[in-house]
Amino acid sequence: MEGGVHEFDGSTFRECFSLSWRNPYVLRLAFSAGIGGLLFGYDTGVISGALLYIRDDFPSVDKNTWLQEMIVSMAVAGAIIGAAIGGWANDRYGRRTSILVADALFFAGAAVMASATGPAQLVVGRVFVGLGVGTASMTSPLYISEASPARIRGALVSTNGLLITGGQFLSYLINLAFTKAPGTWRWMLGVAAIPAVVQFFLMLFLPESPRWLYRKGREEEAEAILRKIYSAEEVEREKEELKESVEAEARERSSSEKTSLVALLMTTATVRRGLVAGVGLQVFQQLVGINTVMYYSPTIVQLAGFASNQTALALSLVTAGLNAAGSLVSIYFIDRTGRRKLLVISLAGVILSLALLSAVFHEATSHSPPVGAAETAHFHGGALTCPDYSSRSSSSFWDCTRCLKAAAASAGCGFCAAGGGDKLRAGACLAAAAAASNATARDACRGEGREWYTRGCPSRYGWLAMAGLALYIAAFSPGMGTVPWIVNSEVYPLRHRGVCGGAAATANWVSNLAVAQSFLSLTDAIGAAWTFLIFGGLSVAALAFVLVCVPETKGLPIEEVEKMLEGRELRLRFWAKRRHHHGGDGDGGGEKTGGV
């Protein structure tokens, strides 16, 4: 959004909703484009549940965590490319055309994945979806912004963010709905084609962005659209402002093209400090582990001791709901509390929740149920016994954790919990891939009404882990979830905002890819407890970074943000108000919070 963050007060939203009867055309533009945000959220969230059933259908995926990570992270890799190409396509072919292309990519990706016969086809489908996500992530809010009346632009653009988190929540609902359907994951992934088709046909009958048309010299078309958006007395003023804005943008672009990012870092202290704050926040947003929760939430629930796919999906719905609710909380508090204070409070909660998760997983691993020799031999006379357990020394102690670790070196082992309702008693360590009397170990275990574990072990601490996950999302979403994007819209000088904003967004996607591609490998190599402890350490580093490097930009014009960065005032007492002196007749005096 140009010019920083818009105020989101009650009157703005009331005016926004009153459009439903005064000028429904504007809402039609905004919500038609906003479906792109819904698709963005759905396609990033749906894989978390689908992956549980993909593992069941494709043994190669179940045995290789790197393949699971690839299926998840290829969408992120596609999004990096899609965002880069999307910026060029937006300028060259327009916002509407770019949205139509994104819809075609979403549809193609959903069709390829729903009909996949192997992991390779799933990866290809995820790349198509990622290209669509990258294009939609920048095009949908841009189209809404440029086709909305200025006084309610912030409220309408914010609907795109709400639709992203809403799409993630919807994906968890859809996952849960199809757990009993034949084809499970195929339906989960294929449903995304429906909103893509709906948006495609809606956008066919909507106009191009008036700003883009004006930039291309198609002023009459732009004016015709403006007359549908604004009242008659507002059109002339808007035309004049549009003309001035486009001319200023052209001047800015011509000067920006002569300035590379490296040159800015070497010569401009203000931009360098702004980039440190903006890029650093985007990187830390990912390094504190948010997308491990959004991409792998049901898997984390299973690591906590809930074996059932349905239970894992149902409990994951809580995290998705809290994430969506956090977006609303952020809108309310961002201009009341301030950016830095909200970040500090958010990170404090994230650190606390990650410490709790690390402790819970450590206790669960240290006190997992033992493996009983009699329990294991009970299944088909020992024919299903895990090979590593069969060759153990007589003095060695085996529990569920050791059984699951042996799976990496053998044909694939799982733990069959004790029956009778007490899953913490001694269970059986079985070879998941072995067969006897045409029955796999998993089927044999479940056939006796027992729980089958291949990810985590039965634990009395499972609900504590769920509380830790809920606290993590509740703390992250209102602060670290939204504030990095807001700070990046405020902290760069207008003339360099394009190149700096692009660098920050790229840093976010690349960090996202690194986390998505490494999480399962880390949990396999060092365990969930140490993995969450690493994220906790990175969160502590993020808190120190915010206190030292991130300025408070609440209520400050861009010019004053630049002066603040030039002065580089270090202010660790983030809770204290700073007296801001300004000359002239002012706007009524009072205090503004500022400082770094």
From TrEMBL:
Record flagged with keyword Protein biosynthesis: no
Any one GO BP annotation for this protein: myo-inositol transport
Bilayer topology term: Multi-pass membrane protein
UniProt keyword terms in alphabetical order: Coiled coil, Membrane, Transmembrane, Transmembrane helix, Transport
Superkingdom classification of source: Eukaryota
Cellular component, GO, one term: plasma membrane
A molecular-function term among this protein's GO annotations: myo-inositol:proton symporter activity
Record-linked PROSITE patterns: MFS, SUGAR_TRANSPORT_2
InterPro entries per record: MFS_dom (IPR020846), MFS_sugar_transport-like (IPR005828), MFS_trans_sf (IPR036259), Myo-inositol_Transporter (IPR050814), Sugar/inositol_transpt (IPR003663), Sugar_transporter_CS (IPR005829)
Record localization: Membrane
Domain Major facilitator superfamily (MFS) profile, chain residue ranges per copy: 29-554
Principal location listed in the UniProt entry: membrane
PANTHER family: INOSITOL TRANSPORTER 2-RELATED, PROTON MYO-INOSITOL COTRANSPORTER
Record family assignment: Belongs to the major facilitator superfamily. Sugar transporter (TC 2.A.1.1) family.
Protein name: Os07g0151200 protein
